[in-house]
Amino acid sequence: MSDTTTAAPARWLPFVVLGIGLTAISFGAVLARLAQAEGVSSLAVATWRLGLAAIIVTPIALMQSRQDLARLSGRQMLMAVAAGFFLALHFATWISSLEYTSVASSTALVTTNPLWIGIASFVLFRERPGLMMIGGIALSLAGSLFIFWSDSQSVGVGSDPMLGNMLALAGSWCFSAYLLIGRRLRAGLGLSAYIWLAYGAAGLFLFAASNIGGVSLFAHSSMAWLVLLGMALGPQLLGHTSYNWSLRYVSATFIAVVTLGEPVGSAILAFIIFGEGFAPLQFVGFSLLLVGIYLAARGEQR
After folding, report:
1. Torsions phi, psi of 156, nearest 5?
2. Where is the EamA domain (predicted)?
3. Cβ(198)–Cβ(73) under 8 Å?
């Protein structure tokens, strides 16, 4: 989990790591749905996904990044708290969305963060988007509208697909804020220190929210605990950490394009495990959304 070494890995290794990370992250929505089926509330699922990941990475961070952590400034601590806050909101809203809408719609909408980051860059930093970025945003918004419309007309998509889709979009907005803050924080910190601070802060926020809301955090079945541990080890530590590690060796734009595979992988798994299919209009929306994000990522690179 260290990225302080100066030796470059083999050229093929980052691509293999990204493939493993994508596969692990694609299981996130399915594992969350399985935990919910075991009676674990969405807030508890989010709390343990981040909390267990932070606990597991603690000894690694203390061994590898002790000096980075000892030199933390007050500004870096505030940024870590802010990053953790938005990461906590991301998982709380996105995992909650899985109670109300399909896995495919939820993961397609929650991975729209490259679009919102592009818009935020224009609003906050006056970075003028190019034609490809504008076209990508337009296509993605059109795709989102198709998904919303398809889900509103379908029966059996979820208990409240419109609410679920809005929660998934809110999760994407929160993740965009987390990335914008974390990008600055990551520049001065090693990988394990950054992950420990971000995951730990998010876990503490979610733990506090669970206690305030009276959410049960410990009265779960053995199967539920296995699923929660799997979420922490797989999608969170293996998946997200693979992306963060690869960022040192490949472009951020390429990683953004790789993440487009998450909705596809999650949808395939949901079809196999839960029997969730696609409506024709929903499939059109997925296609427009993925093409739009790809164009937006290419536009950002240019």
Report:
1. 90, 5
2. 23-148, 163-296
3. no
